[in-house]
Request: fold
Amino acid sequence: MGGSESGSESDDEYAKLIRRMNPPRVVIDNDACENATVIKVDSENKQGTLLEVVQVLTDLNLVVNKAYISSDGCWFMDVFNVTDREGMKITDESIIKYLHKSIETDACFRPSLKSSVGVRPSKEHTSIELTGPDRPGLLSEVCAVLTNLKCNIVNAEIWAHNSRTAAVVCVTDESTGCAIDDPHRLSIIKELLSNVLSVNNDSRSAKMAVSLGVTHTERRLHQMMFADRDYENVGDNKPSRPQVVLLDCLEKDYTVVMLRSKDRPKLLFDTLCTLTDMQYVVFHGTVDTGRMEAYQEYYIQHVDGLPIRSEAERQRVTQCLEAAIERRASEGLELELRTKDRVGLLSDITRIFRENGMYIRRAEISTEGGMAVDSFHVTDMLGNPVEAKAIESVCEQIGQTALRVRQCPEALSPKPPEETLTSFLLGNFLKACSFQTFGLIRSYS
Reply:
């Protein structure tokens, strides 16, 4: 046992030495492409590195329009064509410097991805993680309980998918503005919130965790919903449901994963989260967006070096990727709130939504410089579009200047012709079968 541990430590030290000798290199080019900034990343090829790079881009709200992923042995090269949310090139020097620092330095010496998304100590707030069955009014009840317990919600993100919900809520003590660390008080918070989450006739019990730490919220939400098996028993009645096809590429022992869906911000991050959590390695891939649609293609193996071998595994990967795309997909009307922050504000806002028959499907809560900056995606209680009179009532109660109504994204997205998927899959099937002939993937010993 002692010899094994010593060998493991030596391997870790050797790996650190290799990373120091070959740190990630980033080239940011604003001249190579007419309408996007081209970011090239060369790095050691270890599990999770690709996701770490994409996570940096996502956290900066950069939009990936195209991506090319290629690995050869223990090294990989990624090329990303990115813009900001307004479709402009990246010219802000502070963002460019941050990209270099985050990818070239932090990613090189950062612990494993598993550690990087764990809980790290924080004195600023207490993190509350919730998973359980979704239902109308749930967020309102959670906010009311926290407000009654003198907890101030400073940041939160809530996702709902396939009748399940997950939330990461960051709270502080109302009187001190600091994290809550009293064990007795934390136990009361856990007990009361567990009561709110529990549904007697649900086969999967609600789960809750409280920690004095920080985590990457969106990364954690994917892990929570994956662990909660939100990918199971998804209905086939959605016309905009993402298309996922898996093909065998036997010549190289890869599985080819092809995805087609409506384009949206952070789509690449979401699919890579799930592939990484399921212990698959992306060796090669392409991403292309256009006309409101996104196409992703990956050549993958499991970390054990094998492609997908069974029909059960194939079905599970398909379901999990569909769920990863749908979790963040915009559903319903988006309402944006910007107003002066105060204790109990979120409890009041969510109560007003509930009283006007609105069902919160997804929410992002944040505070910036004393201002509450929140986004809510809402439908009526049955999942249908919200009526105009309900919107008017909510705006009157909250304030016309504080609440901004955005048009439902579904109304803006043209339906793609049905033959698009067929031609897409046929073309990629031919590519997957003959990729060696066309040199799409380099052969290496």
